[in-house]
């Protein structure tokens, strides 16, 4: 199990909430030796390209086979929901395949669905007694969700989990990506939230030493209201 990224160049920031640690890490999710990794999946759980394709390729055929069986027996996974599968050849123990919302300019309750899927992920991880989970910037890729709005909702949903569950088994959450913009946005969202405290660590890289990022989201930036029903804190 990975206990610390202090000696890894990929660690960009550490934050704490209650008894849990949130680590922002630039790393390939398929290499993480955590309990659970989250795959941003489509409704049919067909892992054909991008990170999902890499997870499928490196993890082996058993992952897609289990997902196919699940969809055959239960139907497509709805936006805002997820399922857990084996991890195949990957170093993690399980994979949660999470279906985030496709961006429809705020007209289809995308904010609510994104918050729901994050809470559902954490509930599923906790229900199995796992302690660590790696979460990417769900819905921000080909699903088109505006990045800053998405990371705000993801971070706020994590905070809401720990407010709701006083004795969560989850002690470490990795917010990960290989994309600088996504990681920058995760840190901005964490620094903007009153629920998280930023921690210092040795050899802290540039992201963690910068001043608090100023929110640059404006209602005129998007053709919709992606997060008006979510309690988001801005600096």
TrEMBL record:
<dbReference type="InterPro" id="IPR043472">
    <property type="entry name" value="Macro_dom-like"/>
</dbReference>
<protein>
    <recommendedName>
        <fullName>Macro domain-containing protein</fullName>
    </recommendedName>
</protein>
<dbReference type="InterPro" id="IPR002589">
    <property type="entry name" value="Macro_dom"/>
</dbReference>
<dbReference type="Pfam" id="PF01661">
    <property type="entry name" value="Macro"/>
</dbReference>
<feature type="domain" description="Macro">
    <location>
        <begin position="9"/>
        <end position="194"/>
    </location>
</feature>
